[in-house]
Amino acid sequence: MSAYQNLIAGQWAPSATGRTFENRNPADVDDLVGTFPESSADDVAAAVVAARAAQPAWAAMPAPKRGDVLYRAANLLEARADAVAREMTREEGKTLPEAKGEVGRAINILRYYGGEGARLYGRVIPSERDRVFMHTLRTPLGVIGAITPWNFPIAIPAWKSCPALISGNAVVLKPSELAPLCATRLAEILVEAGLPAGVLNVVHGSGEAGSALVAHEQVRAISFTGSEATGSKVADVCGKRRARVQLEMGGKNPTIVLADADLDEAAGIVLNAAFGSTGQRCTATSRAIVERSVADAFSEKLVTKAKAMKVGPGLEAGIDVGPSINAAHADRVVTEVAAAAGAGAQVLAGGTRLTDGALGRGHFVAPTVLGGVTPTMTIAQEEVFGPVAAVLSADDFEHALAIANDVRFGLSATICTRSLSHALQFAQRIEAGLVMVNLPSAGVEYQVAFGGSKASSLGPREQGPEAIDFYTTLKTVYMKY
Ligand SMILES: NC(=O)C1=CN([C@@H]2O[C@H](COP(=O)(O)OP(=O)(O)OC[C@H]3O[C@@H](n4cnc5c(N)ncnc54)[C@H](OP(=O)(O)O)[C@@H]3O)[C@@H](O)[C@H]2O)C=CC1
Ligand SMILES: O=C(O)CCC(=O)C(=O)O
């Protein structure tokens, strides 16, 4: 068992409160992953002081040299990928292949934003006046607060910190208390790669530390991923003090299956998107909206595949679905399934906690398929964030599209079809930031913009080159020569 610490001004130190919290393996609560500092507003304030002190020199370093630090960090993480992936499975529960994939994603993010150091372009704009030269420059904002959730414990800290750092900002990162270890490993690696003291600070703890970071007057921007309830509070506080804010929150992502689709492939796509990462992804498919003429055939295939999935501790070979993040969350998932059944849905697979033998030491929920779901049921409107797929029927493409759009979220959406016309119409008319054709709604790439519409997201996009927009401000320069 290890005692982990905060990183402030280049020093690993306990919280000023002296308090700690435990992190336990969601597949086996007897496995204590480590203890972490329970930080207060004072710890956050110390981290912001350190970040402010370090930021000017970091911003003055040529951006490609900042990129070299990220490249070195990528190499270090690559060398430790297997160990970090195992730790991720222990702290978050996802299967080892999923954790390895996520570590690989973090390595790619480090390299990608390392390269952006040589591409922090401005523009030259023609003036309407004689011998006036106009250009734009990107400048950093100062200190950035990054608040991250538990479901992608290294990729999300990386995809917020890397574009912030390459742009010349200093960062205070507050990882989720439910999966704090991988963020610590990322910080250790960046320090080892030569990141100057104070440029990245990590303050562990609960919402108390998070809200102190959001409220801190010297933090110029907050990038947040997590629940809609917390995101709304973050936006309110940032709005009042005019800090920049970027929110990534929930989804109620649809997969439309048209009658012309390859049904076996479509069932596999829904299976992947609904049950991968135990359904704990904001991009997970939670609604399969299927053309009525093939709805029964599709459901049968999905149910057969769901029942064949092996649920268990993610470190074991051959496991398809790991545990929910904690007991309360697993209980909430089965309660919402029971409520859907009470409202008239049929439980075609799963619907219960799995507690036999060693599974009883973890928070396991069987992959669940609900049939006969109608668009107004709560299960068709609210995010579950668990391994639950609701199957709805639609008359045709237009009806399916109307159902798909009739929720307050708009993050990711898939259509399974062989029709080019329907695929293109879907891309135009679906209310979502991420559109997939014959691909799972989850599983995004780092080099393109990521984000949603409606209640799913607020502010500029994350990832890809667009991420830089959030972390920089444009300066317009006019010069008479
Ligand atoms: N879109 C997504 O990717 C995610 C969505 N969710 C949704 O949210 C639900 C709850 O998950 P949960 O982890 O509790 O999500 P939260 O929104 O509560 O947590 C996200 C992050 O915000 C921090 N935080 C909590 N309260 C505040 C606050 N008032 N001000 C600033 N920061 C705060 C959390 O700290 P701490 O962890 O210590 O509470 C964590 O680091 C899930 O079941 C799911 O529906 C969750 C994770 C990711
Ligand atoms: O599906 C993915 O790859 C990304 C999901 C995500 O960003 C999230 O759940 O927070």
UniProtKB/TrEMBL annotation:
Q: Name one GO molecular function term.
A: aldehyde dehydrogenase [NAD(P)+] activity
Location of the Aldehyde dehydrogenase domain: 12-477
Alphabetic keyword roster: Oxidoreductase
Q: Read off the Pfam families from this record.
A: Aldedh
InterPro entries to which the protein is assigned, alphabetical: Ald_DH/histidinol_DH (IPR016161), Ald_DH_C (IPR016163), Ald_DH_CS_CYS (IPR016160), Ald_DH_CS_GLU (IPR029510), Ald_DH_N (IPR016162), Aldehyde_DH_dom (IPR015590)
The UniProt record lists the EC number as 1.2.1.5
Presence of the UniProt keyword Nucleotide-binding in the record: no
Q: Oxidoreductase as a keyword?
A: yes
Catalytic residue list: 248
Looking up PANTHER family in the UniProt record yields:
ALDEHYDE DEHYDROGENASE-RELATED
User: What family does the entry list?
Assistant: Belongs to the aldehyde dehydrogenase family.
Q: What is this protein called?
A: Aldehyde dehydrogenase, thermostable
Source organism of this protein record? Luteitalea pratensis
Q: Which gene encodes it?
A: aldHT_1
